[in-house]
Design goal:
With 359 residues, the protein is of the alpha/beta class. It folds into 2 domains: 168 residues, Rossmann fold (3-Layer(aba) Sandwich); 187 residues, Up-down Bundle (Dehydroquinate synthase-like, alpha domain), CATH 1.20.1090.10. The strands form 4 sheets. A 7-stranded mixed beta sheet has the order 1-2-9-6-5-3-4, sandwiched between helices. It has a two-stranded antiparallel ribbon with strand order 7-8. The termini are far apart.
Amino acid sequence: MKQLQVALGSRSYPIYIGENLFKDNLFEQHIKSKQVVIVTNTTIEPLYLALVMQQLEAYQVETIVLPDGENYKTLAYVETIFTFLLEKKFSRNATLCALGGGVIGDMGGFAAACYQRGIAFIQIPTTLLAQVDSSVGGKTGVNHILGKNMIGAFHQPQAVIIDTQVLASLDDRQLAAGIAEVIKYGLIRDIEFFIWLENNIEKLLLRDSAALAFAIERSCINKAEIVSQDEMETGIRAILNFGHTFGHAIETGMGYGKYLHGEAIAIGMCQAALLSQQLGYLTAADVLRIKNIFEKTGLCVTAPKDMSAQTYVELMSVDKKNINGDIRVICLHAIGTACLPMAVETSLLMQVLNSYNAD
């Protein structure tokens, strides 16, 4: 087992990475009272809920099972969590365990952030994307029909428990979507990792355990370092949103759930790379290199045909990075080096989007 640390002073917490962690008693040191609630979904419940509950036999454990899918990541379903906690008389020192992918982690974390103004929670991510990204850093929230993740809170977990064994049950589409977020770390700040990924993508796709463990650890190291520097995303943490301004527009515009998050972000990163080329940072060869690695992963990098450039721009105008009405986008100065969000003229965005779709 590897153990990393997200260094945030009194809010610091460990990330555990290894095999069969659901059978190791990692929970006890992070649970402060007898009351524990596990929030999971209908896909994960039959696979892993019993394993986790075996480690919590000493506690008063209740479970909430939600439908599976991005389209259920709404205030209405968070309300069902609140109602359950109130009906079961959960107190302020209770602990919520979020057992699932990014949707469950975001919703469970948001419920924990709000219930009685904040209770403890533990992230137990079961998808590659959640393991390398959404479970680390304390971002929680839900979607709105007008914008992705526009309602939420920063609320750090007590611990993140990453059992790599769960990836055996992950379907190929979800695996590829998770690899998209892995590639992001190489693009924004870790050129050596990006080169490693170019040479080892096939191993990840074949679920080579050593390669997956290395990719998860390297991704979590990158994210933990950034979050430790900028917990509330007032500066450097924004680079973690590379490709997300475009990708979130795709998810919102096409309807939540049609594209997996990683699928939309893969397209968004390619679009942001083209914008970086238009701004004079990347070369055409760099942009092609970025597209190629996503294509090797099996991800489609073709933009949705049903979305016009104007639709993109309208949706991109509702983004947490925007200031004073300016659309701000993260670009790459080079592969392995991202820049902080910069305001981009609408005319240039339209040009890039139309050019990308034409290609």
